[in-house]
Amino acid sequence: MKIAVSGKGGVGKTLIAGGLARGFAERGLKTIGIDADSSPNLGLTLGLSAEETRKITPISDNKQLIEAKTSTGYSGVYNLNFTVDDIVKQYSVPTPLGVNLIVMGTVRSMGAGCMCAPTAVIRALLRYLVVETNEAVVLDLEAGVEHIGRGTARQVDALLIVADSNLKSLEIAKHIHDLASEAGMKQLYLVGNRVMNETQKQAIQSFTDKNGLSLLTFVPFDQKVIEADMLGVTPLKNREIEAVSTIDNICELLLKKTESQA
Ligand SMILES: Nc1ncnc2c1ncn2[C@@H]1O[C@H](COP(=O)(O)OP(=O)(O)OP(=O)(O)O)[C@@H](O)[C@H]1O
Ligand SMILES: [Mg+2]
């Protein structure tokens, strides 16, 4: 099972990606979380400290290793020879929530240029990664449509698009949906996050109905999520937070959906 989480900036992608990865790991799946944001912070959500997160060697620094592993030596010819075990042993770091974390990479200096190379590494990794039924990969994407345009998430089984009731985030969700759909991706689901009341639910519901998006579920707004993030403690550790248990339920929904598509 490979899942990617996309959406406008600040809508809750990292919280949801982290919650799903934790949920899969707890259900016994060997799980990799990939932070594909050039401002990486999935580590914090998976229970690492800010210092530990900062120290992670990004996968872009392992470009040579990845190429050596996937290339047959003939230009443009590759082996399908990545396993989740390879990744876990060689490239990822363990986190307190049981998820193995990979970080794509960041910008090192002003004028260092674009993120094309690190993005290409993640795309190759997903393309050549063989994920068994007892394994899961959750990709936390950078905000907006850049990764979608680059096809980073083309190889996933399901793309979650996170939005709140703000029309701007819903418009970006629709843009992501339309791009992914045109590219032939089938399992596209909208998650309505930070929902405070029925009016917000209805706003999200009527937008998805009108624009042909498939609404998976709503995640309630919870002040405790904000408070935990403020203190640098992952909200995922507190099971009493309703948003956290709702995100955990999304694991079940996705497992059922991908099973029925298999
Ligand atoms: N259900 C929720 N209830 C309350 N606060 C939430 C909820 N979901 C996310 N937040 C808050 O919204 C903010 C953004 O969350 P998060 O970092 O997960 O978003 P993001 O989409 O990954 O952002 P970015 O685009 O910067 O990567 C955080 O302060 C988080 O605490
Ligand atoms: Mg994020």
Task: Describe the secondary structure blueprint for this structure.
Layout: E1 2-7, H1 13-26, E2 30-36, H2 42-45, H3 50-55, H4 63-70, E3 82-83, H5 84-90, E4 93-94, E5 100-103, H6 116-127, E6 129-130, E7 135-141, H7 146-150, E8 158-163, H8 167-182, E9 188-195, H9 198-211, E10 215-220, H10 223-231, H11 242-261
Parallel strand pairs: 1-7, 1-8, 2-5, 2-7, 3-6, 8-9, 9-10
Antiparallel strand pairs: 4-5
Helix pairs in contact: 1-11
The structure holds adenosine-5'-triphosphate and magnesium ion.
Magnesium ion binds at residues 13-14, 37, 41, 140.
Walkthrough of the structure:
The protein is an alpha/beta fold and 262 residues long. The protein has one domain (2-261): 3-Layer(aba) Sandwich (Rossmann fold), CATH 3.40.50. The chain has eleven helices and ten strands. Strands 4-5-2-7-1-8-9-10 form an eight-stranded mixed beta sheet, with helices on both faces. Strand 9, helix 9 (198-211) and strand 10 form a beta-alpha-beta unit. Helix 1 (13-26) packs across helix 11. It is globular and about 50 Å long. The chain starts with a strand and ends with a helix. The model has no long low-confidence stretch (mean pLDDT 87). The chain binds adenosine-5'-triphosphate and magnesium ion. Magnesium ion is lined by residues 13-14, 37, 41, 140.
Average the pLDDT over all residues and give the rounded result: 87
Find the CATH topology.
Rossmann fold
> Major beta sheet, specifics?
8 strands, mixed
Shape: globular
Bound molecules: adenosine-5'-triphosphate, magnesium ion
State the CATH architecture.
Answer: 3-Layer(aba) Sandwich
Which stretches are low in confidence, meaning pLDDT under 50 for 5 or more residues running? Answer: none
- Total domains: 1
Give me the count of strands: 10
CATH class: Alpha Beta
Return the string of H and E elements: EHEHHHEHEEHEEHEHEHEHH
The class by helix and strand makeup works out as alpha/beta
The fourth-level CATH homologous superfamily is P-loop containing nucleotide triphosphate hydrolases
Count of DSSP H/I helices = 11
Helix content: 40-55%
Strand order of the largest sheet: 4-5-2-7-1-8-9-10
Approximately what portion of the residues adopt beta-strand conformation?
15-25%
Radius of gyration: 18 Å
Distance between the termini: 10 Å
